[in-house]
Amino acid sequence: xxxxxxxxxxxxxxxxxxxxxxxxxxxxxxxxxxxxxxxxxxxxxxxxxxxxxxxxxxxxxxxxxxxxxxxxxxxxxxxxxxxxxxxxxxxxxxxxxx
Length: 98
Description:
It contains four helices and four strands, in the order βαββαααβ. It is globular. The protein has 98 residues and is an alpha+beta fold. It has a single domain (3-94), classed as Alpha-Beta Plaits (2-Layer Sandwich), CATH 3.30.70.100. Strands 2-3-1-4 form a four-stranded antiparallel sheet.
């Protein structure tokens, strides 16, 4: 069953461009190298400065688990952490089928 995930980020003042570059680079690698990842899209809030949401969709739990074990995901932590004003909020969702 497909799994959706959102990651909410609050970026430090003046770090938007660096944050975007890091996440967009990651997204390119994820979509190119990870079969079963259907969406990996960064969005910026229209109303709250420095706030972003990453929307992710995976074919199943195994694909999601494999994602967190990739070298590009593991390398993300220190680079991303330098840009963030607070810890990201991660939420997982199940697809609702008719």
